[in-house]
Amino acid sequence: MNEVTPRSVVDGAVPLHPVISPDGRWVAYPVTSVGRTGDHPQSAIWIAATDAASPPRKLTEGTAIDFLPRWAPDSASLFFASDRASRGTVQLHRISLDGGAAEALTAWPGGISDHLPLAGGRLVAVVAEESPPDERPGRGDVKVWGQEVPHDRLWLLDLDTGQSHGVDGLGDRHVVELAQRPDGGPLAVLSQATPELDPGRRTCALQVVDPETGKVRELGRAGLEASAPTWWHADGGWHLCYLATTPPGPVGGRAVFNLVVPETGAAAEHLPVTSGMTACPTGLAGVGEGPPLALFADGLDTAIHRLDPATLRFQRVSSLEGLAASLTASRSGGVVAALVSTAYEPMNVHAGPPAGRLLRLSDARPELREVAWGRQERLSYRASDGLVLDGLLILPPGRTRGDGPFPLVTLVHGGPYARHADQFMLGVIPSGQWLATAGYAVFLPNPRGGEGHGHAFAAAVAGAVGVEEWTDIVTGIDLLIADGVADPDRLGIGGWSHGGFMAAWAVGQTNRFKAAVMGAGISDWGMLVATGEGGTLEAGLAGSCGWEGTGPHRHDRLSPISYASEIRTPVLILHGEDDTNVPVGQATYFHRALRRFGIEHEFVVYPREGHAIQRRDHQLDVLERTRAWFDRKLADPTPLGAGKGLSDQIG
Fold it and tell me: Residue 426: its pLDDT value, please?
């Protein structure tokens, strides 16, 4: 058995975003390391045969960041983005399936952000800044809000001549995502009013662009955070589907919207087609001219669905155990590929028929098969109001429930619109198997507000974040105590992002926990509206904004900072210094409050990190520091031997 160390967690590889070839024979996918060792990320592109007849092979060296693979229409070559020429500036490249040297197709000073090879093989749609940085007027490093912000425009690159021209009909819209009609016709373009981190101005719209003439037709405003535009054909007409957050956002989660694309400039009605479903859409995949396939989060598992053209409702095609993401389909729809992870298998690329068994193609972490992992159990229980909930329990390796009670750490997921699927729980942010191998039982609850149980379940936290979802978590902990699994005198709680908020909320509501970890968490919702990139959308969770009169405001009652004087639990606070999602001021505010009331805590800020911790040295610190924190605070008050750590006492 191999020992699990922090290095064994962060020094592995992980595949990302597979793309299947139009003929269904190959799947391309980037592979990157879990932990970044320098200032610039690195990734290589691999290809694998979808029938697993031959082993995967590395197509690019990966000495730079090689990513965003896109297949040529004839499936004979691959386009990809890379910063190999100049670190931090991404250009378009093309490589043959036989490997060899890649051909650079662009050398724009500002680089590109996306690309899409078009039917016929002559044109590539490229998304890039409207003009090189040195051509934009400016005033040094002075920043004026709303001015001189580079927008990503749509360009058409002619591979025969090497020349490109911009599509002027989109005006000053910021282009986000593209999809070409399967018959080689127009492009569907999702665009925003601005790239600025200001959701009040990031209104999304859908347009259709003729790549030959540049003519643009407006299809109306799209839903919040719209993505994955997908064409399909029925009854002699073309439709478009896309994913978007249900209004008013961010509560309620994602839905699939469909519209009939009018022949002329007539208005198009965007209709939700997933209303009433108890599963939640997470991805769309186009299938030639036929109706699209979609991935749905379904409780602890994932399902593949297909849209029924007659009813405009999604019908289940197959079920996948655990977590599946990044669905991609061949032109015929006979072969799909996705990233899949189950309880004891890390994320890997799988492929096969949508209604059949998917074969594992990649093998990103073979070394982990030598480890004896903790037993991962599925949980199902009812909340205090009768709502059916699920979650996971991980026991220390080699132990059963009968060996309890164990010290219990509850890890709350982010979001809140996320979930703990029945996937391999080993990661950098305090993760289940990492703590289980040290002797802890780990509870991974899925309280209301998350995905996998439909719109009403997700929307239950609207204006009431931390209320019923908190009691959902407490109910699960109490059940584990009653079952003899958890030691009531050795309880810990932690999480990242929304999970960090819930940890901070928990210690202000009860003194039951002996230790907490608040990772990138929210302490004050009003301040998050003011400074976070979600802006006023956060009021959908907290119920109010700070500028709505003199208060008290609803968000004050839902902010952990308001209960700081009640906290007695030691808290470890971790935060990225450059976090724009939840700015580090949230952690600083909580730290100052705990210091004011004399509460034991540690406050750790990671330089050059955003909302996720990516640098290898910082990831190692997170792993070591969080487990050491729980070890110190949850140690058995009557140790079995002097000098023994928690894992020694239990195992």
Answer: 95
